[in-house]
Fold:
Amino acid sequence: MGKKDGPRLLLGTRKGVFVFTRKRKGWKLQHHGEPGNPIPYAVHDPRTDSLWCSIDHGHWGQKLVRSRDGGATFEPVPEPKYPENAEIKPGKPAVLRYLWVLAPGHAAEPGTLYVGTEPGALFVTRDDGTSFQLVEGLWNHPSRQEQWMGGGRDEAGIHSVLVDPRDARRVLVGISTAGVFETTDGGASWAPRNQGLTSTYLPEPTPEVGHDVHALQWCLAKPDVIWQQNHCGIFRSTDGARSWKPVHEKERKGRRRLAYFGFPIAADPEDPKTAWVVPADADQKRQAIDGALRVLRTEDGGKSWQDLRRGLPEERAYDVVYRHALDQRGDELAFGSTTGNVYWSDDRGDSWRELGHNFPPVYSVRFAD
Structure:
């Protein structure tokens, strides 16, 4: 993307991808790519210096594009395709419905990129997008056809992909609705990692598979510390996802619970005890709690949460922030909302500044060097 130009901020929106460049006085819009096209996710691949975007085209379906010049121009990339005999369930063919997330692979594998899709599949390219293969070990998991379900959409979707910086063979995925799955052999086999999660909407609230993970992040310096924003609270693992503990606020009489429901979560890459969430009013409302837009931060592993609102609207706010629309890098954080408001902080969320409030609905926010 032209590292000489400095840090970037990428917004995937209902009407294209916006590329900002960090200047001395703040962020400046440099490019507006794919104008008019819905961009569910935009990400920079630092290994190849490419910008990847998924497109949810209303007429032409799901598409992939890539930019090699920082977002000035884009080229089409053949999107993943399900094998002809692939079925969601017996008699129901699998057809690509949504490209949820694009995740660059390990630093030692510059041609590898993962794509999480709906219905419930993980694809991988090993040749920088020339071809994609279905990760059959996950697609053929015995739980998929009967225990994976749609969470707000018709079918299950893979929206989070984490590649262990220590070992390219270890990958975690978050699936809505199924839970967390892990491979340690490069995708040949997968195991559910949901012990300790609770799904209050189920008759049996602690199944091995069937949890609605909203977002999954980990501490890059200590990848065995993993955070998730779940439909039923905020959870943290310190043993590589083998077990989870709730770190959300408990219900207390006469006190509004803030740290519980939401969609995104950001984890500090160095400090395993620090994370941020943007809460929402659960479950039917799905808007800012009490009309105040806020970010919550924990610095003690979820024992307590700070309510960060300085610079954010404290009344008549109806924003909700999607699972990919919050990101963190160093002391900086940025998020965008469904009402086109975008905010940025350079002091770890203590205070916020507005980047703009007339953007299209924001689907994803990602920093890029």
Q: What stands out?
A: The helical segments are 136-139, 144-147. The chain has two helices and 30 strands. The chain has a mean pLDDT of 95. The first helix runs from residue 136 to 139.
